[in-house]
Amino acid sequence: FYIDSNNSYDIFLFSVPSFYQNYKEYLAMLIIDNLFCDDLVGIFYKSLREEKGIIYSLYSFYPTLFLTSYYLIILASDSKDKEFKVFYEIKGILENYKKQNNLKIEINQAKIRVINKVYLVFDNPDSFIFSMIYPILYKNKYITPFYLIDNLYYLDEDYIIQVMDKYLSNFYAFRIVGN
């Protein structure tokens, strides 16, 4: 792709379950997303932006789709001279995350952050109404904020690591270079 920009983009695409296919794995992926991609405290953000300074933006997306789904991570770097450096750093993190001494503590902290974000839907009527669209559309009460909080809370760290092993080891990677 050609982009009239000095920025380059690395895109990672993972095939993951939708909430309908496997609700428990879907919940684990919400926590995994927070663990790796949360602004300021996510593993990718800390490593690639704060420590190495090779990206300036990080975005992840895990849509609420009914029968199939995907998990997408987009990283923006400032120039093409960092070509493939971001890719190899991400690949290294994904291959070695289990070697972290405090992985279970970090997973638990990510779980608490996700639960706190779910609680935010109760702050105003608009957020709450929006949070009820998918449960009504899909006729599935388990994706309402009420059930999400409880079900997220009871996921254990070992199960979340199993889901990480299952879905984060295979991915498609794309690189879009500006200029």
Quick tags:
single chain; 179 residues; alpha+beta; 5-stranded mixed sheet; 5 strands
Question: What's the layout of helices and strands?
Answer:
Elements (H helix, E strand, L loop, with lengths): L1 E2 L4 E9 L6 H15 L5 H9 L5 E5 L7 E9 L7 H12 L6 H17 L5 H7 L1 H6 L6 H9 L3 H11 L4 E7 L1
Parallel strand pairs: 1-5
Antiparallel strand pairs: 2-4, 2-5, 3-4
Describe the structure.
This protein has 179 residues and is of the alpha+beta class. The termini are close together. The chain has helices spanning 23-37, 43-51, 85-96, 103-119, 125-131, 133-138, 145-153, 157-167; strands spanning 2-3, 8-16, 57-61, 69-77, 172-178. It has a five-stranded mixed β-sheet with strand order 1-5-2-4-3, with helices on one face.
Q: How many β-strands, per DSSP?
A: 5
The coarse overall form would be globular
Nearest-integer average pLDDT = 82
Q: From the alpha-carbon coordinates, what is the Rg to the nearest angstrom?
A: 17 Å
**Helix fraction bin:** 40-55%
Strand content: 15-25%
Tally of helical segments:
8
* Uncertain spans: none
Topology order in helix (H) and strand (E) letters: EEHHEEHHHHHHE
End-to-end C-alpha gap: 10 Å
Strand order of the largest sheet: 1-5-2-4-3
Q: What would you call the structural class?
A: alpha+beta
Largest sheet, if any?
Answer: 5 strands, mixed
Summarize the structure.
The protein has 179 residues and is of the alpha+beta class. The chain has 8 helices and 5 strands; from the N terminus they run ββααββααααααβ.
